[in-house]
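Deliverable D4.2, example record:
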Amino acid sequence: MSTELELTFRQDADLTEVMRLRVQSLQQRGQKRQDGERLLRPNEAVYRLDFSKQSLQFSHWAVRLAQAGQLTVTATSQLWTPDLTHLMTRQLLEPAGVFWRSPGDAGDAPVQFYEADAHEFGERIAEQAKVRKAMYFLFGFAEGWEKKGICILCNNV
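Output generated by the structure prediction step:
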């Protein structure tokens, strides 16, 4: 028998700040990023997902949004060790999860997303939980998003 488990993304403010300082440092010194390096954009933040259970099966996304806007969630591979290396584009997993609410949607309307991509994205996260205790994500916020209320629902198997 499986039980549903809610996993909540938590912003990693320290890691986000370190990545912003990297961008600022390069700009101040007039240097370019390393070949293949992925720099943090102004509308992005680093989030962490801790896995309390290792044996999970993806169920569905539970994304809450108070108003119109868009969120893009990009996962990083287990090969990225943020305390040791810069983030490289090859360490980003595809597909990304894209969630949005259009201007005109009713307040209680569900958040929209590309179903096949979001499902595959959720399944990849559940697969990563088998070998990792935590995983990092880049959250790209467009207008309207509050940086809270984003979680994934999985079945504990």
